[in-house]
Amino acid sequence: MPTPSMEDYLENIYKLIEQKGYARVSDIAEALEVHPSSVTKMVQKLDQSKYLVYEKYRGLVLTPKGRKIGKRLLDRHTLLEEFLRIIGVDEERIYDDVEGIEHHLSWDSITNIEYLVEYFQKNPDRLEEFLALKEAEEVEDVNS
């Protein structure tokens, strides 16, 4: 299994390839806000671990294993953003919160969050009840 840092790279490489059709070292460095030399080192590790094929000056291609994990990681990120949005987390905090928690949740927890998101989507009245409860609690906390 990849490390959290490897996961960040795989997720971003997968996303870049989906958006642009390719991922260059400079694109990855910009997306992750790191130096290109750091990207090169990590891409070499990912190549050794068979997540991608990297040829210096020619670019990189995700292997089937890398594509599968990259998609799964991007789906996890998207699900957590959606979950936090549904439960009323401030939009400005969502990205940082997801970055802070995504590597620390088990896949079992992710699956259960997925069920909960699906439940709220299929039962909007339950979501309204939850949000009303949350709002009432927040008002009570302010008044205390």
UniProtKB/TrEMBL annotation:
It holds the Pfam family Fe_dep_repr_C. DNA binding is strongly activated by Mn(2+). Mn(2+) 1 binds at D8, E99, E102, H103. One of its GO terms (molecular function) is DNA-binding transcription factor activity. It comes from the Bacteria. SUPFAM superfamilies: Iron-dependent repressor protein, dimerization domain (SSF47979), Winged helix' DNA-binding domain (SSF46785). Its main location: cytoplasm. It is found in: Cytoplasm. Keywords: Activator, Cytoplasm, DNA-binding, Manganese, Metal-binding, Repressor, Transcription, Transcription regulation. One of its GO terms (biological process) is intracellular manganese ion homeostasis. Transmembrane segments: none annotated. InterPro entries: DtxR_MntR_Metal-Reg, Fe_dep_repressor, Fe_dep_repressor_sf, HTH_DTXR, HTH_tscrpt_reg_MntR, Iron_dep_repressor, WH-like_DNA-bd_sf, WH_DNA-bd_sf. The keyword Transferase does not apply. Mn(2+) 2 binds at E11, H77, E99, E102. GO terms for cellular component: cytoplasm. Residues 1-63 form the HTH dtxR-type domain. The keyword Thylakoid does not apply. Belongs to the DtxR/MntR family. Homodimer. Central regulator of manganese homeostasis. This is HTH-type transcriptional regulator MntR. It comes from Melghirimyces thermohalophilus.
